[in-house]
Amino acid sequence: MNVDFDFVENALRKATFGTLSTLTELGAPHATGVVFAVSSPGEPLALFVTTRTSTRKVQNLRAHSDVAFVAPVPHRFVPMFPPRVIQFMGTATVVSDDDEQANRAFAGSWFLRRILATERRIVSEGGDLCFIRIRPERTLFTYAMGMSLLDILRRPRGAIGRVKIPEARQ
């Protein structure tokens, strides 16, 4: 199924949980579940994760900036069916807790504001708050986006897709 960037970006904005894969100092893969926020519309596409400077993912990013990211997009009415997926490769950097773009992204919903407030409370007990800025490469890869469950079952190979990020959003 052909879907465009706006469709995929809208689905990404509705998601809040994904898997961030980084590389350790020795180049071994390390994956962790994260809550994320998406940059404001019109800004270059980026995902932001709030964390602490003492975490393994931050240590890994200081050694290797290459990442992979997977965001499941559950089916609303059939949650037991495998989710649709948005995934990409990209690079990530650690940015300070006062980064304007990251704070705007986390201000976008009540849930994300609660997550950030919780992180700030945890950090007040020890550690330094920071954000991870994740920038996708030029292509977002998808599975089952824009397809009905019946179409996915009938044509699973047709569920594989890719969407180019517009130049203005890279």
From TrEMBL:
Q: Which InterPro entries match?
A: Pyridox_Oxase_N, Split_barrel_FMN-bd
Gene3D superfamilies per UniProt: Electron Transport, Fmn-binding Protein, Chain A
SUPFAM superfamilies registered for this protein in UniProt:
FMN-binding split barrel
Ranges in a coiled coil: none
- Report domain Pyridoxamine 5'-phosphate oxidase N-terminal positions: 9-141
Task: Name it.
Answer: Pyridoxamine 5'-phosphate oxidase-like protein
